[in-house]
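If you are new to this repository, start here. Below is one unmodified record pulled from the training split, so you can see the exact layout before writing a loader.
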Amino acid sequence: MSLIWKKDKNIELINEFIDSNLVEKGNTKNTASAYNNDLIQFIDWLNKKKFELKNLTENNLEAYLIYLGKRGYKASSISRKTACLKAFFKFLLSENYKQNNLMKNINRTNSSKLLPKSLPDNEINLIFKNLEKIKKNKFRNKAIFEILYGCGLRVSELINLDIENINFEDSEVKCTGKGNKQRIVPTNESCLRSVNDYVEFERNFLKIKDSKALFVNKNGRRLSRQSIWSIVKDCTKSINLSIEVTPHTLRHSFATELLKGGANIREVQELMGHSSLSATQIYTFLDNDWVKKEYLNSHPRA
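And here is the target side for that same chain:
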């Protein structure tokens, strides 16, 4: 017997799916009940968004999982709901309700230990305020932080930047990522101003050995990976922050802020230079502190 009774095409499909799992796969009633609750929640979200099941896209499903993250669901809960949707869309494919399995390439880990750490806005502001106090290589270091946080570049991409890769007119940074793939990342006025100040007030006074390199050391040679890690550590060690900051932390914060701001996960994938969507999906587990803050700011009874 089906666990839901509403006369709706979507509900009918869920009924068939649950019956199939009870009869053919031998799932327990508890499992069927959990599937029922997860899918009812999913259908309610579809109805609110005025989406039709037959016209759904992979991006729509990603948006739903991001929505769950914003609601404060733990990674383990989102992982379970993802597994439910995977089973449901596999069923829809097998029954010829859908031409392809939209959940095939969508995954969620159930281990919060794997989630990248990001910095809240107030701590990002503390870092940039502290950079103003540092005298040695002040302009260079600020430009490095602006690009790592403002463009989400990897360390390898940062150190390989040439001056010609900064497009001041179009506010873009061109970088070369993994597999020698190039991408263009939009940037902001603050980042461009920092780069310009660095070139004008510091780099131009050095004897440059590598004329193309944007970021160089005191000897005029391109900075190394180790140098960037040391710069980030030295510039943040005196600040009372919630986590230890590395270049990767700034990259993670870039991606997290984009998703919090409503960016499409495909767009974030492109900006991050990820070859597969699965690498970007991990950022959709948003931190509970931000979720609570959003609730307190937006809920009428909070």
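Two things worth knowing about this chain: Residues 232 and 246 are 6 Å apart (CA to CA). The first helix runs from residue 9 to 23.
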